[in-house]
Amino acid sequence: MTLLALDWILMLEKLILIAIIVFASLGIALYTTFSERKVAAVLQDRPGPNRAGPMGLLQPLADGLKLIMKEEIIPNSANKALFILGPAMAMTAALMTCAVIPWSSSVELFGRKIDLQIADINIGILYVFGVVSMGVYGIMIGGWASNNKFSLMAALRGASQAISYELAMGLSLIAVLMLSGSLSLKTIVDQQMAPGAWWNIVYQPLGFLLFFICAMAECNRTPFDLPEAENELNMGYHQEYSSMKLGFYLFAEYVNMIMSSAVMASLYFGGYDIPFLDESTLAPNMAAILGVLSLLTKIVMFLFLFMWIRWTIPRFRYDQLMNLGWKKLIPLALVNMLVTGAVILWQQG
Amino acid sequence: MQALTNRGKQVSREPMSFMERIYLPNIFKGMAITFSHIFKKQPTIQYPEQKREFSPVFRGLHVLNRDEEGRERCTACGLCAVACPAEAITMEAAERMPGEENKYREEKYAAKYEINMLRCIFCGLCEEACPKDAIYLSETFAPANFTRKGFIYGKDDLLIPDKNKAPEEYAAAKGAARV
């Protein structure tokens, strides 16, 4: 069935996959907000939300409903089009990352081999970086369009933080790319899955630590949540936002967290690899399903780590943030890169 | 300057050591502390379903007592009103008529007895002053109200239900904890 020289079944297959992944990420993000509150509560000896539904499980729905029902305020002096574009962009950028993440190996359905990855492009990780940097535009546009000096200042804060930490993030990533020799996330995962191969965390512990710190800064998570410091810095770039537009900004943070967890799991923790198990001995479909579960487990563990850190340590001061980014993380990442390169050369020669 | 307590600690102005400057050891220490709190017992009381018990010396809403036969004990002597530091109590006395012996214990009784719960400081001095054991502080407290007037409790609010006729209401007025 080829029309206009297109494989329409492939299109359909990808569309369904996109729908599933987008809605699954949104659903997980919804419940991440809930688990954030639960984790915060448990770490502080409280029970947390437990009134809406059994064990409070309907709480995210109640939160979402509340945000939707709230009055939508667009300030008179705000630039209307950009004001709406801001949260839309933040959300889109957050969701677009999921396109290149290999969720699992392939399943066989109706005699077709379906890859559980929307697009295995050969510059996968570069695409992730490109899209993540677009998220900064969401912040900048939102802060600028609000026509409020505090929003604008917070947006500048956010943008400069994102840019500073993206540098160290990219540098620590280069060491992984030197090991794998490929930018495709699928290839990177496959290399870690190969029998006898270790996960990249074994070769790149420092690289992972740097990447993790930078990912936290990119997601605007505590201790790097200066762009939206709730209490002491006048809210942040979404100060003028209300209703679901505010919800989108807050929600994008959680989607970002999930996506960066997925990227970290793929880069350093073998992606959908199940530790100490040779997947090739299983039936392909079974291996694929277990792979998805394994990746999800890794993501959940990262999410817990994010929350655990958030509810443990206070926020950095802005000068400390910049010092850490430029004077510590970047030199460390450079050293890590040089050492990795030297070791690879030594092994070859 | 002399220290107020011996718990004071000198703030260290020394530059951070290397271990402090890389933050991580202290961050891990902090994370271990927060993680240990996962297993701690939560002190939360799920309020509308569970209620915290009052201490045995709790002084709550006043009740006007009855004797064993269900007669009002108050004789409107006014000692409670005199003892009250907040001047929350007012009363008017009346004489017991023949045929009312089953309602009032003594020849004189309080026709009107009002306590302003917004003035009351729940000190319990009225309870101490009363020679007839007529006023007691229960283990309940005044519920919220929309008007100031609603906080002026009259005799119908204060008088404890008859133990023999309505034991449940009697227990509720005394306060659940002491039953």
How would you describe this protein?
The complex is a heterodimer of chains A (349) and B (179). Chain A has 349 residues and is mostly helical. Chain A has one domain. Chain A has eleven helices and four strands; from the N terminus they run ββαααββαααααααα. Chain A has helices at 8-43, 59-69, 80-96, 124-145, 149-180, 185-193, 200-203, 205-218, 243-268, 284-310, 318-348; strands at residues 2-3, 6-7, 106-109, 112-115. Chain A is globular, with a radius of gyration of 21 Å. Chain B is α+β, with helices and mostly antiparallel strands and 179 residues long. Chain B has a domain at 62-178: 2-Layer Sandwich (Alpha-Beta Plaits), CATH 3.30.70. Chain B is 22% helix and 13% strand. The N and C termini of chain B lie far apart (55 Å).
Oligomer: heterodimer
Biggest sheet features of chain B: 3 strands, antiparallel
Mean pLDDT of chain A: 87
What is the number of helical segments of chain B per DSSP (H or I, 4+ residues)? Answer: 6
Radius of gyration of chain A: 21 Å
Structural class of chain B: alpha+beta
Q: What descriptive keywords fit this protein?
A:
heterodimer, A: 349 residues, mainly alpha, two-stranded antiparallel sheet, globular, B: 179 residues, Alpha-Beta Plaits, 3-stranded antiparallel β-sheet, elongated
Write the layout of secondary structure elements.
The complex is a heterodimer of chains A (349) and B (179).
Chain A: E1 2-3, E2 6-7, H1 8-43, H2 59-69, H3 80-96, E3 106-109, E4 112-115, H4 124-145, H5 149-180, H6 185-193, H7 200-203, H8 205-218, H9 243-268, H10 284-310, H11 318-348
Antiparallel strand pairs in A: 1-2, 3-4
Helix pairs in contact in A: 1-9, 1-10, 2-9, 3-4, 3-9, 4-5, 5-8, 5-11, 8-9, 8-11, 9-10
Chain B: H1 18-21, H2 24-36, E1 62-64, H3 79-83, E2 89-95, E3 108-116, H4 125-129, E4 135-137, E5 152-153, H5 155-158, H6 167-174
Antiparallel strand pairs in B: 1-4, 2-3, 3-5
